[in-house]
């Protein structure tokens, strides 16, 4: 079957050809809007669709052939998987694609397994699984015009399209090395797999166990029992782990103490918590800021204000992820730049409409946007835009105009937030938000904006998130948004 998918794609090179990297929600959405209209193939390194929602059988500690794994070879980690008992942070009625309602038997907040099943159902309904090449890794994406004669000769065939893509077996990057061509490459490989580790001075003196939320799994819950756990970061991942350890375990199973360290504004919000008042008053849960200045000893650290945190048993980085595209040649092709701060890749560009590489618009990035409220609907809106460009229903501006548009948008992010990460990570305040962006794209696509959907997000979901970020994350999973929406609601297909 795998060979047939690849051969079918190669046999249609006379058509407009599109290669999609990744079969998670972003890749599947793009595949749905392009299938049957162009020659398209999707490359997925896991053995099934779903991206992070497809459980990886192995971790870095248990993989039998880690050094030969293609993903690990380029990224230094395995592709992430959601931990097994994860419950989504968005109600099912607001976490779905157009025309595909969630199973009514699923809970108000779908489990990881339920959303994985939803993606399977979505794939089946849209007949797209037969376009996905599994257990295959994209080793490189090269601009054909920049290939040397020697590189062209190694391929063994005449290159006729814009991109030359080298693929290999994900289980062993030395095996099954071959090449595909494409007019367009859509990068939908996700951005939650390469952990970000801030550079904390004196790291060599610290001897307590360290880990990243990337490595958290259900079977590791017992390692925190009766221990002092320090979590560095106060985003959704850290809140979810605190919720599990303090609200979903018995008193005998939970940590002796959890200290959360993070952004001063967020930590001040958390100190108002009602959900964890008992744990705070008993000393089981402590919120501290500002950031860490350095590790001080084998089990202690010092904050920037001089406060010390001592007797640490486990230190967990909840410090997010880096943007990583090791399959792109940044020296030869230079199609995008990765912007760094404190050694981490936090944003990228220049991109037109946060999607198209300005230097080569046929290289397309979908799913790098970090939306506050929209989930699959935001991804789908990008996929609609991309399909209309590829199908020549929308003509992109000149490179100069796209560069100017990017400069203006990026400078806006810089002026409001002191760095450019809000160019990619939307906010619901200070003037940059996802709704403004998606309305702009709706106008470009000449499709009416789905204001009903936007209204449900703002009316029903935003208050839950505000309450969660006041330290009341447990309340989020107790709400019932679907009862406030029309029965069996899903976003309208004729609107954007």
UniProtKB/TrEMBL annotation:
Molecular function GO terms recorded: flavin adenine dinucleotide binding; N,N-dimethylaniline monooxygenase activity; NADP binding
Database matches in InterPro entries: FAD/NAD-bd_sf, Flavin_mOase, Flavin_mOase-like, FMO-like
Keywords: FAD, Flavoprotein, Monooxygenase, NADP, Oxidoreductase
Family note: Belongs to the FMO family.
Protein name: Flavin-binding monooxygenase-like protein
Organism: Tetrahymena thermophila (strain SB210)
